[in-house]
Specification:
Blueprint: H1 2-49, H2 51-61, E1 63-68, E2 75-76, E3 83-88, E4 91-95, H3 105-116, H4 120-126, E5 138-144, H5 146-154, E6 162-166, E7 169-172, H6 179-182, E8 185-187, H7 190-196, E9 206-208, H8 211-215, H9 217-220, E10 225-230, E11 243-245, E12 252-255, H10 259-269, E13 274-279, E14 286-292, H11 305-313, H12 336-346, E15 355-357, E16 360-363, E17 366-369, E18 378-380, H13 382-387, H14 391-402, H15 404-413, H16 435-442, H17 448-455, H18 465-476, E19 480-482, E20 487-491, E21 498-501, E22 506-509, H19 514-530, E23 545-552, E24 561-569, E25 579-585, H20 594-607, H21 612-619, H22 622-627
Parallel strand pairs: 2-12
Antiparallel strand pairs: 1-10, 2-3, 3-7, 4-5, 4-6, 8-9, 10-11, 12-20, 13-14, 13-25, 15-18, 16-17, 19-22, 20-21, 23-24, 24-25
Length: 632
């Protein structure tokens, strides 16, 4: 019985061990099946679901991609027939260091330097020691003539690793005074790239640096193309046929600038430090913008662009400064246009009331002398005070009847002390002082003497020539100023169709009665016929209206007066047919009171469709141009 029980127990243990073994086998098989399923699902995911992503990554890793630069858009004058800026075919020389046999770098670099007429150490700086085993292509020289490319091509067997490619170069067809309007391009800096990379710019992008080139870079830039080739892990090209995505050229721009008027104004100003602006008051179009001295933008096309910039930036009278919108000056007696408007609008004194000018005013411990005429103009009403530019009249009325707050308010109404919104990347707002400003700035109270200075456009008030042009535009438009602008149209480079046309935009609008503006216009016309400008602004064919100004400058190198003239005409024409001209000749020039003569020449050339030489002959100014000492 005992043996039977033992055998039964032993049999049960064997059966239990068998079941455990089977369970382990089942668990193992189940684990293998689950592992297989996991790998199958993962493989399916990688190949089918995520296959596109990884194939794209594979192509990226095994592809060498080069950027094909897009042509920048071209820039035209208002007639869209004369290109101011175009692109010209040019070449760049590249070097791939790893393609040079070991030990031959110095030989190849020396030969290449000889062909390019540059020192070998120039190439060494471009290709430092750490890059001499790299397959990365390095740009050595740009703007290389075709003759040099031909010489290199003929001797290419001696120049392993050297290659060349087409690289469009900006060609500024028109230079001179238009340089400040158009600006120039250059390589993007690290600082610029950090700001602009989200807008599609690359580390090697060429971007606008100043002027229209910078203001409308997004239009002009275009979209770069791509050239892709298959390479191995070390960068050797495997496929001969590249995959090319062609570039898209930038948009063409048509400016408001009239090339004839621009050249006319440039020649009329001559080689005198200063500026001239020609404006269409009816819509704000800038027909000419001249600033002297100017520069040649093509200087920035070379590898020595930084040296060219440094030379210009340190040159006397700063050729890089656009004096038309970035330099500020006291408006001087041109400001009496605003004073006249304010006196009439505020009825500060009756227009016919006469105030005596004895040539000077003693106020406090200071004597104010009327610089136009001593011992004085005698008794003058508003019309004749403006025509004769009598300081005493405006000192008295400004101090006793208007006051600083009203003068400042009317100045702002004419756009002084504020941005004019012109489409350039930099512009000065000028400045209009107030009593509160002086207290905060100098911790001094505003005095009546400050008001007197302000009343004749001296003291703290500062404006640009464009501000003064806009001031006169408000008179032409009888209380309305349009935002001055330089862009007229954006055009498609392929079809030449206008895809955007710039519409006039009102900048300021006054509620002053229209009849008052008529009176201001008449007074400005009288200033030309019977006032200070009657001789230099004498024009037998065209009726002009405007105001002279001589701004006192302390510490000037040659004299103490800037010469101003702002005018519009024809006086008897509808505003749509009128032009405004604003000119300043700085005090660093020899004194010759040239601004009004310059203005008359510009009007004559525009209205009679004459060249500069024809205009000065018609006006009888040939002797002035020949004999006046002109700043070189």
């Amino acid at each position: 019985m005992t043996e039977y029980n033992n055998d039964l127990f032993s049999s049960y243990e064997k059966s239990l061990e068998g079941e455990k073994k089977n369970l382990r086998i089942i668990v193992l098989l189940l684990g293998l099946v689950i592992t297989f399923l996991i790998y199958t699902i993962k493989l399916f995911t990688l190949q089918v679901i995520e296959g596109k992503v990884y194939r794209q990554r594979s192509r990226t890793i095994s592809s060498q991609v080069k950027t094909i630069p897009a042509n920048r858009g071209e820039i035209f004058d208002r007639n869209a027939s004369l290109p101011l800026v175009i692109n010209t075919d040019s070449f760049a020389i590249d070097l791939t260091p790893a393609e040079i046999p070991a030990g031959y770098y110095d030989t190849v670099a020396s030969k290449l330097a000889k062909y390019l007429d540059i020192p070998k150490n120039y190439i060494d700086k471009k290709v430092p020691q750490r890059l001499r085993s790299s397959y990365k292509t390095i740009e050595i020289r740009v703007n290389v003539p075709f003759s040099v490319i031909s010489n290199i091509a003929e001797n290419i067997t001696d120049l392993p690793g050297v290659s060349w490619r087409s690289k469009p170069m900006r060609n500024y067809v028109e230079t001179g005074s238009i340089s400040h309007v158009i600006g120039y391009v250059g390589d993007i800096t690290k600082e610029e790239f950090n700001v602009m990379y989200n807008h599609g710019y690359k580390a090697n992008s060429i971007i606008g640096k100043t002027g229209i080139e910078k203001q409308y870079d997004s239009y002009l830039q275009g979209t770069s193309g791509l050239e892709s080739r298959t390479v191995d892990a070390r960068g050797h090209i495997i496929s001969d046929e590249p995959v090319i995505t062609p570039p898209e050229s930038g948009k063409n721009l048509v400016l408001t600038i009239d090339s004839h008027i621009q050249k006319l104004a440039e020649q009329a100003l001559g080689k005198r430090v200063g500026a001239a602006v020609v404006l269409k008051p009816s819509n704000g179009e800038v027909l000419a913008m001249v600033s002297y001295p100017f520069y040649d933008q093509n200087l920035f096309n070379s590898d020595d662009a930084s040296a060219a910039y440094t030379k210009l930036a340190t040159s006397p009278n700063n050729p890089l400064l656009n004096r038309a919108v970035n330099a500020v000056y006291p408006p001087a007696s041109t400001f009496k246009t605003i004073m006249t408007t304010a006196i009439l609008a505020e009825k500060a004194v009756p227009a016919e009331k006469k105030i005596e000018c004895a040539g000077r005013i003693v106020y406090g411990n200071r004597t104010f002398t009327c610089h136009i005429k001593y011992p004085g103009h005698g008794y003058l009403d508003l019309k004749n005070a403006l025509a004769q530019s009598c300081d005493v009249y405006f000192w008295v009325v400004g101090r006793d009847n208007l006051g600083v707050d009203k003068i400042a308010s009317y100045s702002k109404e004419f756009g002084f002390g504020e941005s004019l919104g012109i489409d350039l990347p930099a512009q000065s707002t000028g400045f209009v002082p107030t009593s509160q400003w002086k207290e905060r700035r100098y911790h001094e109270t505003w005095k009546d003497g400050d008001t007197m200075n302000m009343s004749i456009g001296q003291g703290y008030t500062l404006v640009t020539p464009m501000h003064v042009a806009n001031m006169m535009a408000m008179v032409c438009n009888e209380g309305k100023i349009y935002k001055p602008h330089l862009l007229k149209e954006v055009r498609d480079p392929s079809t030449n169709e206008a895809i955007e046309i710039i519409k006039p935009e009102i900048l300021k609008e006054s509620n002053i009665d229209r009849a008052l503006w008529k009176e201001v216009q008449q007074d400005l016309r009288y200033t030309i016929t019977d006032g200070t400008a009657q001789y230099p602004m004498n024009n037998k064919r065209f009726q002009l209206a405007g105001k002279t100004g001589t701004a006192e400058v302390n510490g000037a190198l040659k004299n103490h007066w800037h010469s101003w003239m702002v005018a519009y005409g024809p006086y008897d024409a509808p505003v749509e047919e009128q032009y405004v001209v604003s000119v300043i000749v700085e005090a660093v020039n020899d004194w010759e009171w040239w601004a009004p003569y310059c203005t008359n020449i510009i009007f004559q050339g525009i209205l009679a469709n004459q060249t500069f030489d024809e205009a000065i002959d018609t006006l009888g100014f040939r002797y002035l141009v020949k004999t006046k000492n002109r700043q070189e």
